Amino acid sequence: MKNFPWTTMPTGWFQIAWSGELAAGEIKPMRYFNRDLIAYRGASGQVHVLDAYCAHLGAHLGYGGTVVDDDIVCPFHHWRWSCEGCTVDIPYSERKTQAKRIAAWPVRELEPHVYVWHDAAGAAPAWEPEKLPLTYPLEDYHPVWPQGARRFEGVTMQPQLLIENLPDIFHFRYVHGTGTVPTFEEFSTDGHRIRSRQRFTAPLDAAGEDLSAAGQGEFDVSVQGLGILLTNIMGLGDVSQSACVTPIDDEASDFHFTVFVPRRIPAEQAAGLYRLQYKLVVEDFPIWEHLCYQERPPFAPEEAPAYQAVRRWVPQFHPHEPKKPNQP
To answer: pTM of the prediction?
Structure first.
C-alpha cells in the first residue's frame, strides 16, 4: 500500500484457520508473515503450527510429511520432529540431537477460530485472545464450517485498514448503500481492545435481499488487537460476524470472514443472510487495494474523535518499528 507508515508486521493474534478445516492427521501448508508454515492437528486434538521446512535438509513438511501422535515426520529422510520443533528420532542413526530446531508458533484454538501469535522479534504472547462475545452460545448458531466461513485470499491491504473501518461511520452510506449513517452510542479503547456500539436507523439496501423488516438496530463491536474484530448485528436477524485479517507479506493479507446465523432462522433464510454479508464485505476491497494511506488526513469534525483514537491506539502493535530520521 502506498505511503503505509509501518515497516514491520504487527504484533498480536491472527487467524490462520477455522477449526473445521483442520482434521486430525492432516497437514495444511500456508504462508503468513513472510514465512512458509504448516498447521496440523495431532492425536491429542491440539493444533500445532511450525515453520514449514525441515531443519535437516530443507524439505517442505507440508508436502508428503506425516503426522505421528503430535509429532511430524519429514518426507525426505523421515526425521521426526516434536510439536515444539525438536528432533525426536533419526531412523538411521543412534544419535538423537535436539541442537537443530524448527520454529514453533504459539497457537490458541477458540472454536471456531484458530489463531497464532506473531511478534517480529519472536517475543512470547503479551496477552491472550478471548472467546468472541457472541449474542448467544455458539451451539445456538448454524454450524460455521463450511457455509459460514469464507477466506478472501491475497487481498491487497494491511490489518489496520479493517480496524479503521470501525470509526468510519460515513462510508456505510457511500460504500455499502445504507439509507442513513450510523451514530455512535459508545466508542472506547482499553489496552489491546476497542469497544464500539453504533445505532442504525435504516436497513441496508442490498439487491435481492428484502430487509424492509430490519428497522432499527445496533452494531455491537469488539476488537482484540489488529487481528480480531467481532460485530454483533442486532435487528438484522441477530447475525454476528468476525473479520480477521492476517498478513501474508508486506503487501497482501488473507481476509478471514465468519458469519454466525442463529439456528432459529430457517436454513433458506440463513443462506440469504450469508450471501448478504459476503456481498457487503467485498465492497470495501477495491478501495483498500488501491488506497494511498494518509498519515495526517484532514478529518472532518464529525469523524475526527473516533478516527484519531484508533490512530493513537495502533502504534502499540508495532513495538519493533525503527525510528524515523529526526525522531527522538
So the answer is: 0.93
